[in-house]
Write a structure and sequence with these properties.
mainly alpha
Length: 106
C-alpha cells in the first residue's frame, strides 16, 4: 500500500483570510470604474441614431426618422453626459476627500 507523502514544510498551512477593503476606498474605486465607463457609454448612445431607419425607399414601409429627432436625441445624450460627469466629480470630491482644502489651510 502506497501512502501519500507528508507535508514536511516548516510553516504550518495558513488559513485564507478574506480581503477587507475600507468602505471609502471601495466606493472610490467603484466610482472610478463607473467614471471610466462613462465615455464608452456615451459613445454607444451617440451611435444609436445610426441604427434608426433612413430614407424611405419602399423596402422599409415608409418609416423615416426626421433629422430634428436625431439632433434632439444627440443633444439630450450630450447634456446627460455632462450632467453625469458633474455628478461623478461631486461624488469623487465628497468620497475621496478634497485635498486642496487641506493644502490651503497650512
Amino acid at each position: 500500500m502506497i501512502t501519500p507523502p507528508e507535508d514536511t514544510s516548516p510553516d504550518p498551512p495558513r488559513a485564507t483570510q478574506a480581503l477587507f477593503l475600507e468602505r471609502q476606498s471601495y466606493r472610490r474605486r467603484r466610482l472610478v470604474d463607473v467614471a471610466r465607463l462613462l465615455p464608452l457609454l456615451g459613445a454607444l448612445l451617440l451611435l444609436v441614431p445610426l441604427l434608426w431607419p433612413g430614407e424611405s425607399t419602399g423596402a422599409n414601409g415608409g418609416l423615416e426618422t426626421p433629422m430634428s429627432t436625431a439632433i434632439t436625441y444627440i443633444f439630450a445624450v450630450w447634456a446627460v453626459l455632462i450632467f453625469g460627469a458633474v455628478l461623478f466629480g461631486i461624488a469623487a470630491r465628497r468620497w475621496g476627500g478634497d485635498t486642496r482644502r487641506a493644502d490651503t489651510d497650512t
